[in-house]
């Protein structure tokens, strides 16, 4: 396979990752709605830790850098928390 072909495959994967992040953000909005209905706080530290621990373990099992994966998911969790704040009227996203 040529370098350009491999780079194109990477581009396709990058776009899929972005699509999945968008899907995750949509689900975060749904989480915010459910939390609002149940009178729960937006921030759930136990859930945050559970997600970060889960992805760290899965990265180890997948033989990729678990520290880097954890950093990526810290950003994703922060994005989800911001989306939830936005949906409740407290965020700073447009």
Summary of the model, kept short:
The protein has 94 residues and is mostly helical.
Notes on the structure:
Helix 2 (45-61) packs antiparallel against helix 3. The protein has helices at 3-38, 45-61, 66-87. The longest helix has 36 residues, at 3-38. The termini are far apart. The protein is built from 3 helices and no strands. The protein is mainly α and 94 residues long. It is flat, with a radius of gyration of 16 Å. The mean pLDDT is 94. Helices cover 80% and strands 0% of the residues.
Q: What is the average of the pLDDT values? A: 94
Separation, N- and C-terminal Cα atoms:
42 Å
Briefly note the structural class of the backbone: mainly alpha
Number of DSSP strands? 0
Give the overall shape, derived from the CA principal axes.
Answer: flat
How would you characterize the largest beta sheet? Answer: none
Q: List the quaternary state of the chains.
A: single chain
- The ordered H/E elements are HHH
Helical content (DSSP H or I, runs of 4+): over 70%
Using only C-alpha atoms, the radius of gyration works out to: 16 Å
Counted by DSSP, the helix tally is 3
Q: Give the amount of beta strand, in percent.
A: under 5%
Uncertain stretches of 5 or more adjacent residues: none
Topology overview:
Layout: H1 3-38, H2 45-61, H3 66-87
């Amino acid at each position: 396979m040529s370098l350009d072909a491999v780079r194109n495959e990477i581009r396709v994967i990058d776009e899929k990752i972005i699509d999945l992040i968008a899907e995750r953000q949509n689900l975060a909005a749904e989480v915010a709605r459910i939390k609002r209905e149940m009178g729960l706080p937006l921030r759930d530290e136990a859930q945050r830790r559970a997600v970060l621990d889960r992805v760290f373990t899965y990265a180890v099992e997948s033989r990729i850098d678990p520290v880097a994966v954890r950093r990526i998911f810290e950003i994703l969790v922060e994005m989800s928390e911001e989306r939830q704040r936005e949906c409740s009227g407290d965020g700073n996203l447009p």
